[in-house]
């Protein structure tokens, strides 16, 4: 015996092929059907977990070592996630013991004044760092054969600008911050890549270049590596990063540049 | 003036009005981040006790942000209308709260009062009000605006249809737009946040919505939410611009960080008015705001974020906008930490805006790093519905795949219509009925392939 239809279906489900937006969901009366409440709840749960799960620093460092990258682990002044979320300023500066570590231990691992400092940071999604950080380094290897001799720093409770202090302490010419972006409902694992030339405390976001939404379903590792290599070379030539350095690596698909309140507020 | 009081064993002294306002504000993370919040609950109550006794007239003498340094302050004080202020000119902030709640303050009285109230007065009284006070007084205010339909009538609720797509794909946007219209959303505006600022892309989007609107004779307006300078360029190129959008804040410095000034907005306003595209009215501006924007631009002058938000409304009302949208939970937990703070801020913004005479809507929203979820949004949605909000946002399934945050869905609007009996803008309501999308009572009708909009969908 078939049940009567309780949920009103939308006869435009074929439009779902045109967008990832949640369209043609149907309705129970005027409300969201149970199926969709659960689908939304699951996506939100995954995004929340991505924000709150701590980066497994030891595991990431072990993976880095297996792949031939020496690394050091540092921590921002934000002691835990709850503080981190309330005090972005503390996420932008190093804890004193991490400053000491970079001053004392880094010179035993890497040559002074490295070309590049690479920072793998949790940001707002440790899932992104965990899933894509090492893959990104490996995708960069063809462009930078000496990448394994550059410093790799794993940073916890970090904001983008923490890379400035790290790069400055290492004396690096450029710093690449690979950091978990604010998770979207359908994208809990987006990695952001921020390139900053002449890193030092006090720089603003206008002095960096950003490649966003790095993940297999977004911008793939190979494409992201090509863009980053292009920007690194461009910054060397120009002598700086930021608004003057344009990403023309792929004129057919320029990086999005949203304006106004939303973009101003969406910064990490 | 002396700002001091004794509570229990302690004497509290505050140096100026700005400090009293900040310390009297309900707790929120952004004021703590700025270092302006009360240090204890008792200090917060001390500040409120002091604030309650401050004469409203004092706000015309002591600016929160210096007059000589800030064009928003100059605009607020220079446009103040003493005659409108007269009914409350002798009241303190505490007495003003009592007056607003009393039967003396009915709808017409509040409309007449608006030009006499400064944003700082509105913010001040809101800090003495509980959530139910903010709802009750806002519900007495009526702000009606018109372009191609009539928004803000009593018993009505409109929806901005927000069909965003991460790459501005025309077919993806059209799919979300059809979904929204078939759910009866879109009377406030069909408004796209573009992924790119390129002028050709923006012009393409403007034509996409406008061609559709013309073909189906939809009584609504369109907007591509790009920087005001882009919109002016689009107008110069002959693109079909209905509304001029801009994000604004409560200080000259935050507006500079947004790349705007009153002069620039004046110019854009005139350009849009000259097009004369509105059929029922000439409210041509659409503003978005949000508590915390000034601090995030390091442009807060030591004032609290709620007072600065109200000052943004002071700038907005210069332009008689069609829509003002406070994007309340987008900014993140360093400004509004959790559901409680987001809900309070949404009610404050709606109240202050309405008291100042603005057609307030709210993007009832949150990000995934805030301590909030759908239940919190349901609460704020319901409260703002009771408070008589002019419009809310409609995003497919509440999930904005371009801006990566959660807003309200088309279903959410239907829920509010049902429980509070809120109808759509009358012209849009008639159109939905003509299109067999909704019945006479505003309820959605089951759809079939015979639906003309689905014929369009077939061509996508």
Structure description:
The complex is a heterodimer of chains A (268) and B (460). Chain A is 36% helix and 13% strand. By secondary structure, chain A is an alpha/beta fold. Chain A has a single domain, classed as Rossmann fold (3-Layer(aba) Sandwich), CATH 3.40.50. Chain A has a six-stranded mixed sheet, with helices on both faces. In chain A, α6 crosses α8. Chain A is elongated, with a radius of gyration of 21 Å. The termini of chain A are far apart. Chain B is of the alpha/beta class and 460 residues long. Chain B has a domain of 290 residues: Alpha-Beta Barrel (TIM Barrel), CATH 3.20.20.70. Chain B is built from 21 helices and 14 strands. In chain B, the strands form four sheets. Chain B has an eight-stranded parallel sheet. In chain B, α10 links the parallel β5 and β6. Chain B is globular, with a radius of gyration of 22 Å. The mean pLDDT of chain B is 96. At the A-B interface, α1 and α9 of A face α2, α10, β8, β14 and α19 of B.
Topology readout:
The complex is a heterodimer of chains A (268) and B (460).
Chain A: H1 34-52, H2 57-66, E1 71-75, H3 81-86, H4 96-104, H5 106-109, E2 116-121, H6 126-140, E3 152-156, H7 162-170, E4 174-180, E5 191-197, E6 209-214, H8 221-238, H9 260-265
Parallel strand pairs in A: 1-3, 2-3, 2-4
Antiparallel strand pairs in A: 4-5, 5-6
Chain B: E1 3-7, E2 10-14, H1 17-24, H2 29-34, H3 41-53, H4 71-78, H5 82-85, H6 93-101, H7 107-113, H8 119-126, H9 131-140, E3 145-146, E4 150-151, E5 158-161, H10 170-182, E6 189-192, H11 199-216, E7 222-224, H12 228-236, E8 244-247, H13 252-257, H14 262-275, E9 285-289, H15 293-296, H16 305-316, E10 323-327, H17 339-355, E11 360-363, H18 374-386, E12 391-394, E13 399-400, E14 405-406, H19 410-420, H20 426-434, H21 452-458
Parallel strand pairs in B: 5-6, 5-12, 6-7, 8-9, 9-10, 10-11, 11-12
Antiparallel strand pairs in B: 1-2, 3-4, 13-14
